[in-house]
Amino acid sequence: MTTAIGSKKNKVKKSSGDWAFSVIVGILIVFVLAITLYPLIYVFSMSISEPLRAARGDVILFPKGFDLTSIKKILNDRDVLTFYGNTILYTVVGTAMGIIVTGLAAYPLSRKEFTYRGFFMKFVMLTMYFSGGMIPLYIIVTRFLHMYNTRWPILLLPLANAWYIIVARTFFQSLPDEIVESARIDGASEWRIFLQLILPVSKPILAVLALYYAVGQWNAYFHAMLYLSRKELQPLSLYIRRVVVQNSVTNMMGVAVAGNITAEELLSSLQIKYSVIVVAVLPMLLFYPFLSKYLEKGLLIGSVKA
Q1: Residue range(s) in the chain whose domain bears CATH number 1.10.3720.10
Q2: Using the 8-state DSSP alphabet, how is residue 11 labeled?
Q3: Phi and psi dihedrals of 250, rounded to 5?
Q4: Please, what is the Cα angle at 164 between 163 and 170, to 5 degrees?
Q5: What would the pLDDT profile of 241-275 be if each residue is shown by its tens digit?
Q6: How far, in Å, CA of 101 to CA of 11, rounded?
Q7: Domain 70-302 listed as CATH 3.40.1190.20
Q8: pTM
Q9: Cα(264)–Cα(53) distance, integer angstroms
């Protein structure tokens, strides 16, 4: 009884100002959530609504009717499946390579006993502010490295991101030094320390790097636009650019001349833009929840400290 009374006395009553602040923050959170979710819900609703009702503009938020014609046309298009496969390949391989290179670069830079870490850290940061430019890079990739119309520019150019290296280095610095020191006393090599001690406790920052590299590779289109002219090597992002920006959907409709499109096909073609976006965005939305529990910890610990 005494404990219950004491707990009631310890409760702090909110003042009117605190209540007003909480209400304002709640309204702002709801507003931000609404403007974030509305485009996603609208695009999804447009992609599965009846073509006629979608063309008339009846869809405001939720679907009007139910029709999967446009999505079926996308999934039945061989070009889309090729682009999709290329994107999955670039994302999986590029993410794995990015995590490996970033980890191997960040860990030595986090160790105080590494003599030249200050020099290499300045070199890494220099790349954040200065670059050779697009034209010299294009000349090097195409003329000297002969990687035009190959998969290598898509995989190698975004391989090491300076900001990701800094974030990973800061995370490694936050780990207790006793872990490394005790392993060295037992005679463990640097490779064994990194692989068997550091990586198992670095799941938060690895999840952050995986998400960053995966999203970057999945959405990347500029390097593909510059270095890939062969359709069989292009990612899904270039296809989306053609459909959404250049308004090119007639090839998918299976006709040679736009004038031969029937009224039903024309209505469904209006939804193809939305359906392409849904097909492209859905994998990343499904991928995010598996890493969400690590993201907050990884971002907070890996944030740059003064």
Answers
A1: 70-302
A2: P
A3: -70, -30
A4: 95
A5: 877 766 655 545 444 344 455 555 555 667 778 88
A6: 51
A7: no
A8: 0.78
A9: 12
